[in-house]
Design brief:
A hairpin with a 2-residue loop joins β2 (47-50) and β3 (53-57). The protein has helices at residues 2-6, 20-27, 31-39, 58-69; strands spanning 17-19, 47-50, 53-57. The protein is an alpha+beta fold and 70 residues long. Helix content is 49%, strand content 17%. A three-stranded antiparallel β-sheet has the order 1-3-2.
């Protein structure tokens, strides 16, 4: 396990998507607030990741982090 922890893996941000449930849990957002962020165009329309699972690219989620800390 230590070998894997020290290994560097480079992945383009565009290939990583964060699910709506993960965003809600990490930031403490309600489903209503996530919907408002989409309506206000802070977040784009969600992408379907799996059946009944939607999410956004990591680059957009990083912007939420900047907004929530300011």
């Amino acid at each position: 396990m230590r070998f894997l922890a020290k290994r560097e893996v480079k992945i383009a941000d565009e290939d990583i998507f964060i699910s709506k449930a993960a965003i809600q849990k990490h930031f403490g957002f309600s489903p209503y607030l996530v919907g408002r962020l989409v309506k206000e165009r802070t977040l784009s329309e969600p992408v379907e990741l799996a059946q009944k699972v939607t999410g956004w690219p990591l680059t957009e989620v990083k912007q939420l982090n900047q907004i929530s800390t300011s």
